[in-house]
Amino acid sequence: xxxxxxxxxxxxxxxxxxxxxxxxxxxxxxxxxxxxxxxxxxxxxxxxxxxxxxxxxxxxxxxxxxxxxxxxxxxxxxxxxxxxxxxxxxxxxxxxxxxxxxxxxxxxxxxxxxxxxxxxxxxxxxxxxxxxxxxxxxxxxxxxxxxxxxxxxxxxxxxxxxxxxxxxxxxxxxxxxxxxxxxxxxxxxxxxxxxxxxxxxxxxxxxxxxxxxxxxxxxxxxxxxxxxxxxxxxxxxxxxxxxxxxxxxxxxxxxxxxxxxxxxxxxxxxxxxxxxxxxxxxxxxxxxxxxxxxxxxxxxxxxxxxxxxxxxxxxxxxxxxxxxxxxxxxxxxxxxxxxxxxxxxxxxxxxxxxxxxxxxxxxxxxxxxxxxxxxxxxxxxxxxxxxxxxxxxxxxxxxxxxxxxxxxxxxxxxxxxxxxxxxxxxxxxxxxxxxxxxxxxxxxxxxxxxxxxxxxxxxxxxxxxxxxxxxx
Length: 472
Description:
By secondary structure, this protein is of the alpha+beta class. It has 16 helices and 17 strands. A hairpin with a 2-residue loop joins strand 2 and strand 3.
């Protein structure tokens, strides 16, 4: 059985190990660094991809070794299994992974144990340097070792894990790989304890969320849910005289999913959202396939712009309400309180929307846009004329304590209302007081209900709700 003897360190070797240091190169040193890599590294190339840093190990001002780090490889089966993250997690978090793309020991640095010492020193500072350069730390690293030339001893000595051999392919252009007959060892290392758990976790820690900030969210809908949406939305009329490449039901399903996942910034993010879906999701949406090989045709920004600009808002509302009922089922009999409120939409340059919701379940019942130069009152009245409020109790802000609004609720829609009269509405308050005085005989004093100000009441003598009331 063969054994490998440890090299005997000379005084010079030990002095070198004790005195060597690692630092980032200056911009002025970049040309020298790259030329040494081209001349002396076996790959004879200094081309790196993505975020990258270059280090030099030196002793008494002499360069002993060079290290380059760049973006992690996209497809590594053994790495993905080792980490345990999903494809979507990898797409969003690969930035936290780095590749030791070049490691060159220069002639003056060929001393025992120098490679592992240099690697150790570089790993101790790599994540902090990356944060300084790119605003985020790193969680893990990978490296490839040509086993026909090297044994990867310095990686093993530095605590790296050998996962196996690559398949012997290299990327030649986007989405294409060519065989090169030089499989390499794949070494990996966590750069902090529990790094793999973090990378495959549901949510990143706050300190790492910077890499996901501003990125378009992933689609969380299942294939079954998407198919169901497309089926429900198939009833939305197509405003186009000639049917386009993408069906209206598919586009609407994408927009709804995007809104539920937090996409609120317009057609550009919608296009990015659908482009990031899986092939199974594209199939469920019914996206067309063209060309040879057949590829899914992904809707672009212009498609979503035309869709959002021309789709009839009322028909869209009907479709969304139908989909909501298909998911949640019919409203229960005790879900009989409705609230109406207006909000200004985020990133909309001042667009306001009035919406109706059921109080108990939070179910959306419809929305109406406030016309430019108008206010919430006419928009609310228009919404109440069509919203499903029959047999419910409708509440709204004091702004909506209007005779016409009350008539729509009670006389046209068969609902009740509970409105508020504020101190800045003296006429309304006076009318309520007079009404209350004239109807005192209709209320039982033993119930203990009523208003301290004498501005109306909430219940009849038998304890049932008053059909319509104004509260001060």
